[in-house]
Write a sequence for this structure.
Protein backbone atom coordinates (compact mmCIF):
# COMPACT_ATOMS: atom_id res chain seq x y z
CA UNK A 1 0.00 0.00 0.00
CA UNK A 2 1.02 3.57 -0.47
CA UNK A 3 0.64 6.71 1.60
CA UNK A 4 -2.99 7.80 1.81
CA UNK A 5 -4.50 4.26 2.16
CA UNK A 6 -6.27 3.02 5.30
CA UNK A 7 -4.16 1.11 7.81
CA UNK A 8 -5.22 -0.73 10.95
CA UNK A 9 -3.10 0.42 13.89
CA UNK A 10 -3.16 -0.88 17.44
CA UNK A 11 -1.37 1.09 20.16
CA UNK A 12 -1.08 0.29 23.84
CA UNK A 13 -3.55 -2.56 23.81
CA UNK A 14 -6.44 -0.58 22.36
CA UNK A 15 -8.70 -1.91 19.68
CA UNK A 16 -7.42 -1.46 16.13
CA UNK A 17 -8.29 1.90 14.64
CA UNK A 18 -8.03 2.98 11.04
CA UNK A 19 -5.81 5.86 10.03
CA UNK A 20 -5.25 7.42 6.62
CA UNK A 21 -1.44 7.14 6.87
CA UNK A 22 1.15 4.72 5.56
CA UNK A 23 2.38 2.67 8.53
CA UNK A 24 4.25 -0.57 8.18
CA UNK A 25 2.76 -3.12 10.64
CA UNK A 26 6.12 -4.86 10.79
CA UNK A 27 7.73 -1.80 12.34
CA UNK A 28 8.29 -2.38 16.10
CA UNK A 29 6.30 -0.26 18.51
CA UNK A 30 9.59 1.12 19.84
CA UNK A 31 9.69 3.23 16.69
CA UNK A 32 6.65 5.18 17.90
CA UNK A 33 6.97 8.00 20.42
CA UNK A 34 4.51 10.47 21.87
CA UNK A 35 5.99 13.96 21.84
CA UNK A 36 5.19 17.65 21.96
CA UNK A 37 5.61 19.23 18.53
CA UNK A 38 8.15 22.02 18.28
CA UNK A 39 6.78 23.18 14.92
CA UNK A 40 3.50 22.81 13.00
CA UNK A 41 2.96 19.55 11.14
CA UNK A 42 0.16 17.49 9.57
CA UNK A 43 -1.15 14.00 10.27
CA UNK A 44 -1.73 11.64 7.35
CA UNK A 45 -5.47 12.00 7.92
CA UNK A 46 -5.17 15.67 7.04
CA UNK A 47 -5.43 17.08 10.57
CA UNK A 48 -3.30 20.19 11.01
CA UNK A 49 -1.16 20.01 14.14
CA UNK A 50 0.09 23.22 15.79
CA UNK A 51 3.39 23.70 17.56
CA UNK A 52 2.99 22.68 21.21
CA UNK A 53 0.39 19.93 20.53
CA UNK A 54 0.98 16.32 21.56
CA UNK A 55 1.29 13.80 18.71
CA UNK A 56 2.76 10.40 17.89
CA UNK A 57 6.10 10.45 16.06
CA UNK A 58 6.96 7.52 13.77
CA UNK A 59 10.75 7.35 13.80
CA UNK A 60 11.15 5.12 10.76
CA UNK A 61 9.10 7.29 8.40
CA UNK A 62 9.73 10.55 10.24
CA UNK A 63 6.06 11.43 10.12
CA UNK A 64 3.55 12.40 12.80
CA UNK A 65 0.25 10.84 13.81
CA UNK A 66 -2.46 12.86 15.58
CA UNK A 67 -3.64 11.41 18.89
CA UNK A 68 -7.13 10.83 17.44
CA UNK A 69 -5.65 8.47 14.87
CA UNK A 70 -3.54 6.90 17.58
CA UNK A 71 -6.72 5.98 19.48
CA UNK A 72 -5.90 8.03 22.57
CA UNK A 73 -4.78 4.91 24.52
CA UNK A 74 -1.01 5.05 24.43
CA UNK A 75 1.24 2.71 26.37
CA UNK A 76 2.95 4.48 29.27
CA UNK A 77 6.31 3.44 27.89
CA UNK A 78 5.66 5.39 24.70
CA UNK A 79 4.79 8.67 26.33
CA UNK A 80 7.56 11.16 26.78
CA UNK A 81 8.10 12.79 30.20
CA UNK A 82 6.52 16.14 30.85
CA UNK A 83 8.56 18.89 29.27
CA UNK A 84 10.39 21.09 31.73
CA UNK A 85 11.06 24.66 30.69
CA UNK A 86 14.79 25.33 30.33
CA UNK A 87 16.19 27.38 33.18
CA UNK A 88 16.37 31.10 32.65
CA UNK A 89 19.93 32.19 31.75
CA UNK A 90 21.75 33.86 34.60
CA UNK A 91 22.74 37.52 34.53
CA UNK A 92 25.56 38.55 32.23
CA UNK A 93 28.83 39.02 34.09
CA UNK A 94 29.48 42.67 33.30
CA UNK A 95 32.75 42.78 35.22
CA UNK A 96 33.97 45.65 37.38
CA UNK A 97 35.25 48.79 35.67
CA UNK A 98 38.78 49.64 36.73
CA UNK A 99 39.30 46.44 38.73
CA UNK A 100 42.65 45.49 37.18
CA UNK A 101 44.05 49.03 37.35
CA UNK A 102 43.01 49.38 40.99
CA UNK A 103 44.57 46.02 41.83
CA UNK A 104 47.85 47.04 40.15
CA UNK A 105 47.90 50.31 42.10
CA UNK A 106 47.37 48.49 45.39
CA UNK A 107 50.07 45.94 44.55
CA UNK A 108 52.63 48.67 43.82
CA UNK A 109 51.58 50.75 46.82
CA UNK A 110 51.83 47.80 49.22
CA UNK A 111 55.18 46.73 47.75
CA UNK A 112 56.65 50.20 48.29
CA UNK A 113 55.31 50.41 51.83
CA UNK A 114 56.71 47.00 52.73
CA UNK A 115 60.12 47.92 51.26
CA UNK A 116 60.32 51.21 53.22
CA UNK A 117 59.25 49.65 56.51
CA UNK A 118 61.76 46.84 56.02
CA UNK A 119 64.61 49.22 55.22
CA UNK A 120 63.71 51.69 58.00
CA UNK A 121 62.06 49.78 60.86
CA UNK A 122 61.97 52.77 63.21
CA UNK A 123 61.05 55.65 60.93
CA UNK A 124 59.36 53.82 58.10
CA UNK A 125 55.93 55.07 59.15
CA UNK A 126 57.16 58.66 59.24
CA UNK A 127 58.71 58.36 55.78
CA UNK A 128 55.45 57.00 54.36
CA UNK A 129 53.49 59.82 56.00
CA UNK A 130 55.75 62.50 54.53
CA UNK A 131 56.14 61.04 51.02
CA UNK A 132 53.79 59.87 48.33
CA UNK A 133 53.79 57.03 45.85
CA UNK A 134 55.74 57.75 42.65
CA UNK A 135 53.82 59.01 39.62
CA UNK A 136 54.11 55.63 37.91
CA UNK A 137 52.11 54.14 40.80
CA UNK A 138 49.60 56.98 41.18
CA UNK A 139 48.83 56.76 37.46
CA UNK A 140 47.22 53.35 38.06
CA UNK A 141 44.89 54.80 40.70
CA UNK A 142 43.99 57.69 38.40
CA UNK A 143 43.33 55.27 35.55
CA UNK A 144 41.13 53.10 37.75
CA UNK A 145 39.09 56.16 38.77
CA UNK A 146 38.66 57.12 35.12
CA UNK A 147 37.47 53.64 34.19
CA UNK A 148 34.94 53.68 37.02
CA UNK A 149 33.60 56.98 35.73
CA UNK A 150 33.29 55.44 32.28
CA UNK A 151 31.40 52.47 33.72
CA UNK A 152 29.02 54.79 35.56
CA UNK A 153 28.40 56.81 32.38
CA UNK A 154 27.49 53.65 30.46
CA UNK A 155 25.17 52.51 33.24
CA UNK A 156 23.28 55.80 32.94
CA UNK A 157 22.38 54.90 29.34
CA UNK A 158 20.05 52.16 30.60
CA UNK A 159 19.33 49.10 28.47
CA UNK A 160 20.19 50.91 25.26
CA UNK A 161 23.69 49.50 25.64
CA UNK A 162 25.33 46.63 27.52
CA UNK A 163 28.83 47.43 28.74
CA UNK A 164 31.33 44.73 29.69
CA UNK A 165 34.30 45.87 31.76
CA UNK A 166 37.84 44.66 32.43
CA UNK A 167 37.79 41.65 30.12
CA UNK A 168 40.42 38.94 30.04
CA UNK A 169 41.83 37.88 26.67
CA UNK A 170 42.66 34.15 26.36
CA UNK A 171 46.37 33.33 26.26
CA UNK A 172 47.26 36.91 27.18
CA UNK A 173 48.05 38.83 30.35
CA UNK A 174 46.52 41.97 28.89
CA UNK A 175 42.94 43.10 29.38
CA UNK A 176 40.37 45.08 27.44
CA UNK A 177 39.02 48.01 29.44
CA UNK A 178 35.49 48.10 28.02
CA UNK A 179 33.34 46.39 25.38
CA UNK A 180 30.04 48.15 24.70
CA UNK A 181 27.28 46.47 22.71
CA UNK A 182 24.92 49.08 21.25
CA UNK A 183 22.18 49.23 18.60
CA UNK A 184 24.69 49.77 15.77
CA UNK A 185 27.36 47.25 16.77
CA UNK A 186 30.20 46.54 19.18
CA UNK A 187 32.55 49.22 20.50
CA UNK A 188 35.95 48.37 21.95
CA UNK A 189 36.85 51.26 24.24
CA UNK A 190 40.10 52.04 26.01
CA UNK A 191 39.53 54.69 28.70
CA UNK A 192 42.39 57.06 29.54
CA UNK A 193 42.55 59.89 32.06
CA UNK A 194 44.76 62.88 31.28
CA UNK A 195 43.29 65.70 33.36
CA UNK A 196 42.81 68.93 31.37
CA UNK A 197 45.13 67.69 28.60
CA UNK A 198 44.42 69.03 25.12
CA UNK A 199 43.49 66.31 22.62
CA UNK A 200 44.14 66.90 18.92
CA UNK A 201 45.47 65.35 15.73
CA UNK A 202 48.75 66.44 14.13
CA UNK A 203 49.02 65.76 10.41
CA UNK A 204 52.22 66.05 8.44
CA UNK A 205 53.57 65.00 5.05
CA UNK A 206 51.75 65.08 1.74
CA UNK A 207 52.68 65.88 -1.86
CA UNK A 208 55.96 63.95 -2.01
CA UNK A 209 55.73 62.04 1.26
CA UNK A 210 53.03 59.94 2.93
CA UNK A 211 50.56 61.74 5.18
CA UNK A 212 51.33 61.04 8.81
CA UNK A 213 48.75 61.30 11.60
CA UNK A 214 49.72 61.58 15.25
CA UNK A 215 47.49 61.63 18.29
CA UNK A 216 48.69 64.47 20.50
CA UNK A 217 47.72 64.49 24.19
CA UNK A 218 48.91 67.46 26.18
CA UNK A 219 51.45 68.18 23.46
CA UNK A 220 52.92 64.66 23.58
CA UNK A 221 52.73 62.02 20.87
CA UNK A 222 50.41 59.28 22.13
CA UNK A 223 49.85 57.52 18.80
CA UNK A 224 50.88 54.26 20.46
CA UNK A 225 47.49 54.28 22.19
CA UNK A 226 45.86 54.11 18.75
CA UNK A 227 48.16 51.29 17.66
CA UNK A 228 47.29 49.29 20.78
CA UNK A 229 43.65 49.18 19.73
CA UNK A 230 44.44 46.79 16.86
CA UNK A 231 44.96 43.70 19.00
CA UNK A 232 41.92 44.54 21.13
CA UNK A 233 39.65 44.74 18.09
CA UNK A 234 41.16 41.50 16.76
CA UNK A 235 40.41 39.76 20.07
CA UNK A 236 36.78 40.89 20.02
CA UNK A 237 36.38 39.99 16.35
CA UNK A 238 37.79 36.50 17.01
CA UNK A 239 35.30 36.05 19.86
CA UNK A 240 32.40 37.13 17.64
CA UNK A 241 33.47 34.78 14.85
CA UNK A 242 32.74 31.90 17.21
CA UNK A 243 29.03 32.34 16.41
CA UNK A 244 27.91 32.57 12.76
CA UNK A 245 25.20 35.19 13.31
CA UNK A 246 27.74 37.61 14.80
CA UNK A 247 30.47 37.40 12.18
CA UNK A 248 29.22 40.44 10.26
CA UNK A 249 28.64 42.64 13.30
CA UNK A 250 30.54 45.97 13.07
CA UNK A 251 33.38 46.37 15.58
CA UNK A 252 34.51 49.94 16.23
CA UNK A 253 37.62 50.96 18.18
CA UNK A 254 37.47 54.06 20.36
CA UNK A 255 39.69 55.91 22.82
CA UNK A 256 37.85 57.76 25.58
CA UNK A 257 39.80 60.55 27.27
CA UNK A 258 38.32 61.32 30.66
CA UNK A 259 38.69 65.04 31.55
CA UNK A 260 40.44 65.77 28.23
CA UNK A 261 40.03 69.06 26.36
CA UNK A 262 38.71 68.60 22.81
CA UNK A 263 38.34 71.00 19.88
CA UNK A 264 35.04 72.91 19.90
CA UNK A 265 34.00 71.63 16.47
CA UNK A 266 34.24 68.32 14.66
CA UNK A 267 35.24 64.87 15.82
CA UNK A 268 38.65 63.21 15.90
CA UNK A 269 39.55 59.95 14.18
CA UNK A 270 43.01 58.44 13.77
CA UNK A 271 43.56 55.33 11.63
CA UNK A 272 39.92 54.36 12.05
CA UNK A 273 39.98 54.77 15.84
CA UNK A 274 37.36 57.18 17.20
CA UNK A 275 38.74 59.70 19.72
CA UNK A 276 36.07 61.00 22.12
CA UNK A 277 35.28 62.25 25.61
CA UNK A 278 32.60 60.68 27.81
CA UNK A 279 29.72 62.52 26.12
CA UNK A 280 31.06 61.75 22.67
CA UNK A 281 31.33 58.05 23.47
CA UNK A 282 27.76 58.04 24.83
CA UNK A 283 26.50 59.46 21.52
CA UNK A 284 28.63 57.00 19.56
CA UNK A 285 27.44 53.82 21.28
CA UNK A 286 23.75 54.79 21.34
CA UNK A 287 23.37 55.69 17.67
CA UNK A 288 20.61 53.84 15.86
CA UNK A 289 21.27 50.47 14.29
CA UNK A 290 19.82 47.04 13.49
CA UNK A 291 20.47 45.34 16.85
CA UNK A 292 17.36 45.17 19.02
CA UNK A 293 17.47 44.49 22.75
CA UNK A 294 17.36 40.69 22.37
CA UNK A 295 20.20 40.74 19.83
CA UNK A 296 22.29 42.99 22.08
CA UNK A 297 21.77 40.71 25.05
CA UNK A 298 22.65 37.62 23.02
CA UNK A 299 25.82 39.24 21.67
CA UNK A 300 26.88 40.58 25.06
CA UNK A 301 26.35 37.18 26.69
CA UNK A 302 28.45 35.50 24.00
CA UNK A 303 31.26 38.05 24.38
CA UNK A 304 31.06 37.76 28.15
CA UNK A 305 31.57 34.00 27.90
CA UNK A 306 34.42 34.23 25.39
CA UNK A 307 36.14 37.20 27.09
CA UNK A 308 35.37 36.72 30.78
CA UNK A 309 35.86 39.35 33.45
CA UNK A 310 39.45 39.45 34.61
CA UNK A 311 40.08 38.38 38.18
CA UNK A 312 41.50 41.28 40.15
Amino acid sequence: MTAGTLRALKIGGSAPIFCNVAFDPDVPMSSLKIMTLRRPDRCGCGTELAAGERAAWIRTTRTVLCLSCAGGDVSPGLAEPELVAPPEPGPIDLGCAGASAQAEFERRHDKREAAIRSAHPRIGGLILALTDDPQSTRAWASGAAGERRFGAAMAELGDTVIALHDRRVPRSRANIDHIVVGPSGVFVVDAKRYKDASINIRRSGGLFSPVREQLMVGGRDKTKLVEAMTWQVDAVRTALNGKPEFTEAPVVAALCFIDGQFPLFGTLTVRGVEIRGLRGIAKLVTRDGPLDRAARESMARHLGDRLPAKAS
Observations:
- Residues 55 and 66 are 5 Å apart (CA to CA).
- Confidence is low (pLDDT under 50) at residues 1-24, 73-82.
- Residues 99-119 form the longest helix (21 residues).
